[in-house]
Each structure stands twice: as structure tokens, then as C-alpha cells.
Amino acid sequence: MTAVRPGPPASPPEGRYGSGDRRFDRDADARADRKLRRIALVLGVLAVIGIGWYGWRSIAGHTVSAQVVAFKPVSDQAVEIHLEVHKDAGATVVCTLRSEDADHNEVGRKDVRLTQHAEQVDTVVTVRTTARGTTGELVGCDKASG
């Protein structure tokens, strides 16, 4: 019996596993890695700039703050609300106030337009109600448009 000696391994079909010179493949891989890193860096910087811009616009755009200092039901048809507003000196502001009854049903609502040219405005507003109001609440304030 004769032993069959295996010959040299057969080479793979041309182009199936890349070029035969691995040095060129490594250079191409390194170039591709550098290109991807640059793209990721640019996208990261753009994302940080976008988030920063959005945050700045969100914070800088709201220069109105307000609070209810006190409220007092004056009758079954009205509630007085003492409102304190901080705003830009020349800005006109619209604040929405409401009153609720003991069951938390809204019984009155009023929009108040503040045109005073002061930075701080203290005012007492009477909100008419359909039943006895037990609260006086600030819904919100915004700069008036137009």
C-alpha cells in the first residue's frame, strides 16, 4: 500500500478573499477608519451645537414669570386674585387666571392683559365665577403677540 502525500494546498479562486497583498488592505482599512472617525466627530459636534442652540432658545425666549400672591372669594360669583408678574419693561403680557370650586370643577376663567411699562406688576384681578370659587390659580403668562 502506498501512502498518498498531500500536495500544496490549492489556492482560492482569484478575488474571493481580497488581494494577496495584505499590506494594501490594512492601509485601506486604516484610511476608512480615519474617515469614519472624522464623520463621527463632525456629527457629534453638530449634535452638541444643535442641542445647545435649542436649550438657549428655550431658556432665553421666556422672560415672563408670575405668581399668585393671594386669593380671596368675595362672593358666590367672584374671586379676587392678587397677581405678581415680572417681565421686560416694555412688554405686554397676557395672563390666564382661573378659579375652581370645592370639587375641583372650574367655575371661572379670565385672561388679563398687562400693558404697564414696569418690570414688576402687582395687580388684583376679579374673576367672575358661576359658583362659589375656593381657589385662585394662575394658568400661565405669555408675551402678547402683535
TrEMBL record:
Transmembrane segments: 39-56
Family matches, as InterPro entries: DUF4307
Region (Disordered): 1-26
Residue ranges, compositional bias (Pro residues): 1-12
Superkingdom to which the source organism belongs: Bacteria
One Pfam family matching this protein: DUF4307
Keyword terms of this UniProt record: Membrane, Transmembrane, Transmembrane helix
Keyword Membrane: yes
Name of the protein: DUF4307 domain-containing protein
Organism this protein belongs to: Actinacidiphila acidipaludis
